[in-house]
Structures are given as structure tokens and as C-alpha cells.
Design brief:
By secondary structure, the protein is mainly alpha-helical. The chain has 16 helices and no strands. The radius of gyration is 19 Å and the shape is globular.
């Protein structure tokens, strides 16, 4: 059996991400979707509802009266933060495992995913280009392909790293050359299997901006830049490290300044601490 056929078989056997994630990703891709629609999705998931109520009724908020419904939770945290918490918590299990091939210890991929997603949210605010929830979700899930490709990278690591160090390949290019597919392409296959929206699939496939035809797609550019900033900060750097192509025009095309990036980095620690505090409650 060829490597690609083996990978396709593994995707079919992969335990799907919780259904609520797919429902939310479809909803936020709909311009007519309202906060009420999102709340209705969440309230029919007992586990997620229980966690949200637990967060709102924790000492972190210190509210005088108990929160008793998802609607109450939305009014306290705001819809965007509700979506973020649901997605981060739901994606934690899929992204927290050790990735030996990429040199990532347990929990590191999850931290990188959440960190880059938080950074993407700040870039969205700076650029005012919209699609904040879609971009946040895509950034969070962009490396999902690594969860399946990891074993193949581990088995072929010497060949891959030789191409990177001696031939000037990016890590993604070396994956493609040696294995026949890179983690972005595989991630898009997983997203397709899980019936994510076409926009989400496209962002995951091209999040390293290797295809020039996609480099002016602002949604992908934001996901790409957030990933770069996260790596610049040293968060989630494994064996692939900084062995990727940097497309400097992205900063110019998004009208982001170096000062903007410095402010995003300076504010990041506090934002991440807030998320960790809220997640730790559940």
C-alpha cells in the first residue's frame, strides 16, 4: 500500500473532532448567523453547556448571582469569547498529544495552536478585515495534519532534515518530497472528511502560503502571519523550527507595521494568561 493510501485510511479511522466544532465552524461562515444561533448550537451540548456555566460561576468572575443558561453566559463573556472557549476546549484533546516526528512534547502543539489563534484575533482587530471567528478557528486547527503525518515524518526524519539542511528545502517542501504530501495538504483532507467549510479547508491547505496564487488572500495571510509571530516568540518550535519560507510582502499587504507586531507580542502574555485561567476552571 502506498504512503498516500495509508494516510487516507488513517484519516478515515481518525476520531473526529467534537461535532459542536463542525457546527460552529459552519455557523460562523454564514454571514446571516446570529449570536442566538450560536447559543442554540451550544445549549444542546450538555458537556459544553456545563463547562460554560462552571466558568461563569467560578471565583474568577465572582458574580453575585449564579448563571443558569447559555444565554446568560453569552451576556457575561460575549459571543466571541464563548466561541473561542468552546473551540479551544474542544480542540485540546486532538492537539495535545506528543508529536515525536516534529519534536513536540505533550501539550506543545495545543499551546502553539491557541497562541497563534489569539495572535490572529489581534491581527484581525488591527486590520479590521472581518472574519475574526473563521480566522481564529482556522488558525487553531491549521496544523491538524501533523497529528496524522507525525509517524511518517518520524520514520523519514533523516531524509527530510537532510533536504532542509543541505539542499535548502523548507520543512514543508521536504515533507512533500519525501512522503508525497505535506501537513497542510493532509490537514485539508482531514477538514474535508470532517465536512468543514470550503473556506476553512482552503486556509488549512495553504496556511504556509507556498502557493503564490493564495498570497493575496487576506484570511490566509493573517493565519500565516500569526503562525510566524508565534514562532518568532519561540512558542511551539519543534524539529521543523523556523525551516519555512517567510513571505515579507504579507506584512505590507495587510498594512501591518512592525510597531503593530511589537504591540501584539507585548499584549500576548496577558491574553494567554486569561485563556489559561478560564480553561483551568473546567
Amino acid at each position: 500500500m502506498s504512503t498516500i493510501k495509508e494516510l487516507i485510511k488513517e484519516i478515515k479511522n481518525l476520531k473526529p473532532i467534537p461535532a459542536i466544532v463542525n457546527q460552529i465552524t459552519m455557523a460562523i461562515d454564514d454571514p446571516n448567523c446570529s449570536a442566538k444561533d450560536i447559543a442554540n448550537i451550544i445549549r444542546f451540548d450538555p458537556s459544553v453547556t456545563a463547562n460554560l456555566l462552571k466558568i461563569c460561576n467560578s471565583a474568577y468572575f465572582g458574580l453575585p448571582n449564579p448563571v443558569e443558561s447559555v444565554q446568560d453566559a453569552v451576556s457575561i463573556l460575549g459571543m466571541n469569547q464563548i466561541i473561542e472557549l468552546v473551540l479551544i476546549k474542544s480542540g485540546a484533546k486532538a492537539l495535545s498529544k506528543k508529536q515525536k516526528g516534529y519534536g513536540l512534547h505533550e501539550g506543545i502543539m495545543w499551546k502553539h495552536a491557541v497562541s497563534s489563534a489569539l495572535i490572529s484575533k489581534e491581527i484581525c482587530k488591527k486590520t479590521k478585515l472581518g472574519n475574526e471567528n473563521l480566522i481564529f478557528t482556522a488558525t487553531l486547527l491549521k496544523d491538524i495534519g501533523k497529528t496524522v503525518l507525525d509517524r511518517y515524518v518520524s520514520n523519514s526524519f533523516e531524509k527530510i532534515i537532510t533536504l532542509v539542511q543541505k539542499k535548502g528545502y523548507s520543512f514543508r517542501e521536504a515533507e512533500k518530497k519525501v512522503i508525497g504530501i505535506d501537513h497542510g495538504e493532509l490537514g485539508a483532507m482531514i477538514a474535508t472528511q470532517w465536512k468543514f467549510s470550503s473556506k476553512m479547508i482552503n486556509i488549512i491547505r495553504h496556511h504556509h502560503l507556498s502557493d503564490k496564487s493564495q498570497q493575496k488572500n487576506t484570511d490566509i495571510a493573517i493565519v500565516y502571519l500569526s503562525d510566524c509571530i508565534c514562532m518568532m516568540m519561540g512558542i511551539g518550535i519543534g524539529e521543523d523550527g523556523l525551516a519555512y519560507r517567510f513571505h515579507g510582502d504579507v506584512i505590507k499587504n495587510l498594512n501591518i507595521t512592525h510597531t503593530d507586531i511589537a504591540v501584539i507580542i507585548a499584549d500576548f502574555t496577558l491574553e494567554m494568561q486569561k485563556v489559561e485561567n478560564l480553561i483551568s476552571v473546567t
